[in-house]
Specification:
- Strands 1, 2, 3, 4, 5, 6, 7, 8 and 9 form a 9-stranded antiparallel sheet that branches.
- The chain has one domain (about 5-155).
- The chain has helices spanning about 5-15, 50-55, 85-90, and strands at about 25-35, 40, 45, 60-65, 70, 110-120, 130, 140-145, 155.
- With about 170 residues, the protein is an alpha+beta fold.
- The longest helix is centred in the first third of the chain and has 10 residues, at about 5-15.
- The protein contains 3 helices and 9 strands; from the N terminus they run αβββαββαββββ.
Length: about 170
């Protein structure tokens, strides 16, 4: 579990800010899936997270009206390594996508990345995440890739965000 559980997250965003504001920008590392051909993503991908994953990756909640921080955590959102958020946001992915499946040579792979995003909470409808970086830029981290043709898969063994050694904590 991240530094916030769902009950605490809900209390923060539903409780509002001391200034009276009830809308928050929530920064979180969340899952993005993409199909890559010859190690190049076919498109920007799609969000592939659950609500629990969104809460689990949250590292900042800020009031839109006054900018006050209702939650701010500088540790890695994935493994809780001290100071890991700065490494996660500033460094490139450590897992490189191969040009072809190492098992069978297939050129198309299904890939999963953790991407920092911001979503506005408190408006009409569910919050829609907006990526803060593009895939391939520092801050976006490939976590795993898999081949549909032969079921081969590769998963990062260290923390994909900050490179802390495993074992990684379980995610919801």
């Amino acid at each position: 579990m991240g530094k916030l559980d769902e009950a605490r997250f809900d209390a923060i965003v539903r409780g509002g800010c001391g200034c009276g504001g009830r809308t928050f920008d929530i920064s979180s590392y969340i899952d993005r899936s993409v199909v890559a051909m010859l190690a190049d993503p076919n498109d920007a991908g799609r969000w592939a997270h659950t609500g629990e994953n969104f809460v689990d990756g949250t590292y900042r909640i800020a009031c839109v009206a006054c900018g006050a921080l209702a939650f701010d955590d500088r540790d890695c959102p994935r493994c809780h390594a001290a100071g890991g958020l700065a490494r996660a946001l500033g460094e490139p992915s450590r897992l490189a996508l191969p040009r072809a499946c190492p098992g069978c040579g297939e050129y198309e792979l299904l890939c999963l990345a953790l991407v920092p995003a911001v979503a506005r909470w408190g408006g009409d409808g569910p919050p829609r995440p907006r990526p803060l970086v593009e895939l391939g830029d520092p801050g976006a981290h490939w976590v795993a890739f898999a081949c549909d043709a032969c079921d081969a898969a590769t998963v990062s063994q260290r923390c994909p965000l900050c490179d802390a050694p495993g074992p990684l904590r379980a995610r919801p």
